[in-house]
From TrEMBL:
It comes from the Bacteria. This is Molecular chaperone IbpA. The keyword Cell inner membrane does not apply. Residues 136-155 are annotated as: Disordered. Residues 30-140 form the SHSP domain. Keywords: Stress response. InterPro entries: A-crystallin/Hsp20_dom (IPR002068), ACD_IbpA/B (IPR037913), HSP20-like_chaperone (IPR008978). Belongs to the small heat shock protein (HSP20) family.
Length: 155
């Protein structure tokens, strides 16, 4: 049983939502859900968010955070260390890449790594041109009657 949704009718009746429909289509096609490293997404205010990722064993230099348009990419690549022969390896140190789709006007404010927990603070900043504004109701200016001046003809 397939649960694919057809967004074609929405494409025909809406303008400017292409990105949303493409996002929904790509989310439908996700096959395997990557579960490592574990993360939380927290809403800390009306326009403030935080992503927390458990990256035990990674240092600042092993992590790379990039924002490309509306995608936040977090990569981790740990240099292989030869401290000896592992008899059991329970601390995952494998490379990863995690992508987060961001809404329009969301930007990364800062990132910090503390006790193996990577925290990325995000803020949604709506431009002034897109914020609601109050329209004052006033009287319409008085229209001046149109006058055509013509010379008098002498008969």
């Amino acid at each position: 049983m397939r649960n694919d949704f057809d967004f074609a009718p929405l494409y025909r009746s809406s303008i400017g939502f292409d990105r949303v429909f493409n996002l929904l289509n790509s989310a439908q096609r996700l096959q395997a859900v990557e579960t490592w490293p574990p993360y939380d997404i927290i809403k800390t205010g009306e326009d403030d968010y935080r992503i927390q990722m458990a990256v035990a064993g990674f240092a600042d230099a092993d992590l790379d955070i990039t924002q490309e348009r509306n995608v936040l990419i977090v990569k981790g690549q740990k240099a292989e260390q030869k401290d000896g022969e592992y008899l059991h390896r329970g601390i995952a140190g494998r490379a990863f890449e995690r992508r987060f789709e961001l809404a329009d006007h969301v930007r990364v404010e800062n990132a910090a790594l503390t006790n193996g927990l990577l925290s990325i603070d995000l803020k949604r900043e709506i431009p002034d041109a897109m914020k609601p504004r109050k329209i004052e109701i006033g009287s319409q200016p008085q229209a001046t009657p149109l006058q055509i001046d013509a010379e008098k003809q002498v008969a």
